[in-house]
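Write out this protein's structure.
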Amino acid sequence: MTAQRVYLPAEFGREQFKIFAIDDFECRMQTLRQEITPRLFTLGEMLVQPLSQVVREPLYLHVARHLRRTVNPAEATWAAFARTQRAYKPTVHIRTAVSRTGFRTNIFVEDYAEDRPLFARQLHDKAEELARYFAAHPSIQAFTITDDGNRPFSGDALTPEVLREFAGKLQTSRTQHSIFGLKVPSSKAENADTLCKAIIRQVKTLLPVYHLGIER
Protein backbone atom coordinates (compact mmCIF):
# COMPACT_ATOMS: atom_id res chain seq x y z
CA MET A 1 0.00 0.00 0.00
CA THR A 2 1.36 3.44 -0.97
CA ALA A 3 1.84 5.82 1.95
CA GLN A 4 -0.64 8.68 1.96
CA ARG A 5 0.87 12.01 0.99
CA VAL A 6 1.11 14.52 3.82
CA TYR A 7 0.45 18.16 2.89
CA LEU A 8 1.98 21.01 4.87
CA PRO A 9 2.15 24.72 4.04
CA ALA A 10 5.24 25.97 2.22
CA GLU A 11 6.39 28.02 5.19
CA PHE A 12 9.72 27.77 6.97
CA GLY A 13 10.49 29.38 10.29
CA ARG A 14 12.66 28.95 13.34
CA GLU A 15 11.11 25.61 14.28
CA GLN A 16 11.95 24.10 10.89
CA PHE A 17 15.53 25.44 10.91
CA LYS A 18 16.06 24.00 14.41
CA ILE A 19 15.43 20.48 13.10
CA PHE A 20 18.95 20.50 11.63
CA ALA A 21 20.38 20.94 15.13
CA ILE A 22 19.02 17.56 16.29
CA ASP A 23 22.05 15.36 16.96
CA ASP A 24 20.46 11.90 16.78
CA PHE A 25 20.47 10.52 13.23
CA GLU A 26 17.12 8.73 13.34
CA CYS A 27 15.37 11.56 15.12
CA ARG A 28 16.63 14.26 12.77
CA MET A 29 15.87 12.32 9.61
CA GLN A 30 12.41 11.28 10.79
CA THR A 31 11.53 14.83 11.86
CA LEU A 32 12.93 16.23 8.61
CA ARG A 33 10.77 13.86 6.54
CA GLN A 34 7.69 14.66 8.61
CA GLU A 35 8.09 18.43 8.91
CA ILE A 36 10.23 19.68 6.03
CA THR A 37 9.86 17.30 3.07
CA PRO A 38 6.07 17.86 2.78
CA ARG A 39 6.63 21.63 2.87
CA LEU A 40 9.18 21.33 0.06
CA PHE A 41 6.69 19.36 -2.03
CA THR A 42 4.10 22.10 -1.56
CA LEU A 43 6.64 24.81 -2.36
CA GLY A 44 7.89 22.93 -5.41
CA GLU A 45 4.42 22.48 -6.82
CA MET A 46 3.83 26.21 -6.42
CA LEU A 47 7.11 27.05 -8.18
CA VAL A 48 7.55 24.55 -11.00
CA GLN A 49 5.41 26.38 -13.57
CA PRO A 50 6.60 29.95 -12.77
CA LEU A 51 10.23 28.81 -12.85
CA SER A 52 9.65 27.01 -16.15
CA GLN A 53 8.48 30.33 -17.54
CA VAL A 54 11.55 32.09 -16.16
CA VAL A 55 14.02 29.68 -17.78
CA ARG A 56 11.82 29.27 -20.88
CA GLU A 57 11.80 25.49 -20.87
CA PRO A 58 9.83 22.83 -18.99
CA LEU A 59 11.19 22.05 -15.55
CA TYR A 60 10.39 19.04 -13.39
CA LEU A 61 10.18 18.94 -9.61
CA HIS A 62 12.41 16.61 -7.58
CA VAL A 63 12.39 16.62 -3.78
CA ALA A 64 15.37 15.14 -1.94
CA ARG A 65 14.50 11.97 -0.01
CA HIS A 66 17.94 11.00 1.39
CA LEU A 67 16.93 7.34 1.11
CA ARG A 68 20.50 6.05 0.81
CA ARG A 69 21.76 7.99 3.81
CA THR A 70 22.47 5.71 6.78
CA VAL A 71 24.97 7.80 8.77
CA ASN A 72 25.57 11.52 9.26
CA PRO A 73 22.15 13.19 9.29
CA ALA A 74 21.40 15.62 6.48
CA GLU A 75 22.68 19.16 7.05
CA ALA A 76 20.33 20.48 4.36
CA THR A 77 17.49 19.31 2.17
CA TRP A 78 15.91 20.76 -0.93
CA ALA A 79 13.48 20.85 -3.80
CA ALA A 80 15.23 20.74 -7.17
CA PHE A 81 13.97 21.93 -10.55
CA ALA A 82 15.58 20.35 -13.60
CA ARG A 83 14.86 20.04 -17.29
CA THR A 84 14.80 16.24 -17.08
CA GLN A 85 12.05 14.24 -15.41
CA ARG A 86 14.14 11.13 -14.78
CA ALA A 87 16.81 12.73 -12.57
CA TYR A 88 18.10 16.16 -11.66
CA LYS A 89 21.72 15.61 -10.62
CA PRO A 90 23.11 14.99 -14.15
CA THR A 91 22.09 18.51 -15.18
CA VAL A 92 22.59 22.07 -14.07
CA HIS A 93 19.57 22.68 -11.88
CA ILE A 94 17.87 25.03 -9.45
CA ARG A 95 17.74 24.08 -5.78
CA THR A 96 15.64 25.73 -3.11
CA ALA A 97 17.41 24.50 0.00
CA VAL A 98 16.68 24.70 3.71
CA SER A 99 19.26 24.17 6.44
CA ARG A 100 20.09 25.21 9.99
CA THR A 101 21.16 28.64 8.74
CA GLY A 102 17.99 29.34 6.77
CA PHE A 103 16.80 29.21 3.18
CA ARG A 104 18.80 29.52 -0.04
CA THR A 105 18.22 29.56 -3.81
CA ASN A 106 21.08 27.85 -5.66
CA ILE A 107 22.22 27.02 -9.14
CA PHE A 108 23.84 23.64 -8.57
CA VAL A 109 26.18 21.54 -10.73
CA GLU A 110 27.23 18.17 -9.30
CA ASP A 111 30.79 16.94 -9.66
CA TYR A 112 29.58 14.12 -11.95
CA ALA A 113 26.99 16.14 -13.86
CA GLU A 114 26.86 15.68 -17.62
CA ASP A 115 26.57 19.47 -17.92
CA ARG A 116 29.73 20.16 -15.92
CA PRO A 117 32.22 20.32 -18.85
CA LEU A 118 30.03 22.79 -20.73
CA PHE A 119 29.40 24.79 -17.55
CA ALA A 120 33.14 24.99 -16.83
CA ARG A 121 34.03 25.97 -20.39
CA GLN A 122 31.45 28.73 -20.58
CA LEU A 123 32.38 29.99 -17.10
CA HIS A 124 35.97 30.34 -18.34
CA ASP A 125 35.11 31.89 -21.69
CA LYS A 126 32.60 34.38 -20.26
CA ALA A 127 34.60 35.29 -17.14
CA GLU A 128 34.91 38.99 -18.02
CA GLU A 129 31.19 39.38 -18.72
CA LEU A 130 30.19 37.39 -15.66
CA ALA A 131 32.54 39.31 -13.37
CA ARG A 132 30.83 42.55 -14.37
CA TYR A 133 27.44 40.97 -13.74
CA PHE A 134 28.46 39.64 -10.33
CA ALA A 135 29.92 43.02 -9.37
CA ALA A 136 26.51 44.55 -10.13
CA HIS A 137 24.83 41.83 -8.03
CA PRO A 138 27.09 41.51 -4.96
CA SER A 139 24.49 39.52 -3.01
CA ILE A 140 25.21 36.51 -5.23
CA GLN A 141 27.54 34.12 -3.43
CA ALA A 142 29.78 31.40 -4.81
CA PHE A 143 29.49 28.79 -2.09
CA THR A 144 32.19 26.60 -3.63
CA ILE A 145 34.68 29.46 -4.02
CA THR A 146 35.84 30.27 -0.50
CA ASP A 147 38.57 32.16 1.34
CA ASP A 148 40.95 30.75 3.93
CA GLY A 149 38.21 30.96 6.54
CA ASN A 150 35.87 28.91 4.34
CA ARG A 151 33.68 31.96 3.73
CA PRO A 152 32.07 32.06 0.26
CA PHE A 153 33.07 34.77 -2.19
CA SER A 154 30.36 37.33 -2.84
CA GLY A 155 29.67 38.85 -6.24
CA ASP A 156 32.02 41.80 -5.93
CA ALA A 157 34.95 39.43 -5.20
CA LEU A 158 34.30 37.22 -8.23
CA THR A 159 36.89 38.72 -10.56
CA PRO A 160 37.66 37.24 -13.99
CA GLU A 161 40.80 35.67 -12.53
CA VAL A 162 38.87 34.02 -9.69
CA LEU A 163 36.24 32.69 -12.10
CA ARG A 164 38.81 31.30 -14.54
CA GLU A 165 40.68 29.60 -11.71
CA PHE A 166 37.48 27.97 -10.49
CA ALA A 167 36.56 26.96 -14.04
CA GLY A 168 39.92 25.21 -14.23
CA LYS A 169 39.15 23.26 -11.06
CA LEU A 170 35.81 22.19 -12.53
CA GLN A 171 37.63 20.97 -15.63
CA THR A 172 40.39 19.06 -13.87
CA SER A 173 39.09 17.89 -10.48
CA ARG A 174 36.70 14.94 -10.42
CA THR A 175 35.30 15.99 -7.05
CA GLN A 176 34.67 19.68 -7.72
CA HIS A 177 31.05 20.79 -7.86
CA SER A 178 29.60 24.28 -8.25
CA ILE A 179 27.08 26.26 -6.22
CA PHE A 180 26.15 29.87 -6.92
CA GLY A 181 23.25 31.19 -4.91
CA LEU A 182 21.38 33.76 -2.91
CA LYS A 183 20.21 33.65 0.68
CA VAL A 184 16.50 34.17 1.30
CA PRO A 185 15.83 36.50 4.24
CA SER A 186 14.25 34.50 7.07
CA SER A 187 11.26 36.85 7.18
CA LYS A 188 10.39 35.98 3.57
CA ALA A 189 10.48 32.22 4.24
CA GLU A 190 7.70 32.45 6.84
CA ASN A 191 4.95 33.01 4.26
CA ALA A 192 4.45 30.76 1.23
CA ASP A 193 3.47 33.46 -1.27
CA THR A 194 6.24 35.79 -0.15
CA LEU A 195 8.77 32.94 -0.30
CA CYS A 196 7.71 31.98 -3.83
CA LYS A 197 8.00 35.55 -5.07
CA ALA A 198 11.46 35.87 -3.49
CA ILE A 199 12.68 32.63 -5.10
CA ILE A 200 11.35 33.61 -8.53
CA ARG A 201 13.16 36.96 -8.31
CA GLN A 202 16.34 35.22 -7.23
CA VAL A 203 16.22 32.70 -10.07
CA LYS A 204 15.87 35.59 -12.50
CA THR A 205 18.99 37.12 -10.96
CA LEU A 206 20.85 33.81 -11.21
CA LEU A 207 19.84 33.07 -14.82
CA PRO A 208 23.27 33.87 -16.32
CA VAL A 209 24.75 31.14 -14.10
CA TYR A 210 22.03 28.64 -14.98
CA HIS A 211 22.59 29.23 -18.69
CA LEU A 212 26.27 28.32 -18.42
CA GLY A 213 25.27 24.66 -18.34
CA ILE A 214 22.99 24.81 -21.37
CA GLU A 215 23.96 24.77 -25.05
CA ARG A 216 22.40 27.83 -26.63
